[in-house]
Give the backbone structure.
Amino acid sequence: MKKTIILLVLIVGLMLVPFFIPHAGNYSGSDNQAEQAISKIDPNYKPWFAPIFAPASGEIESLLFTLQGSIGSAIVFYILGYYRGKRAANANH
């Protein structure tokens, strides 16, 4: 039990450390960085298609991205839990 608490404190500490390290960086999305790199290589490049939906702001875009990741994680972990429970149920019989 004591090892578990120490491990938990260590993991949480490592998760919080990046929030207290000063950094001066531009955190733009990889799509924007790719677009800038392509425009440097070929200024006349035309995209193949346009987005179907453009969020009203960056905050909404971040919310949708996080929601998408959360739903995907929920599906993956539900499947893992289902098969683990199924295996445990078969082991008891």
In short: The mean pLDDT is 86. Helices lie at 2-20, 30-41, 58-92.
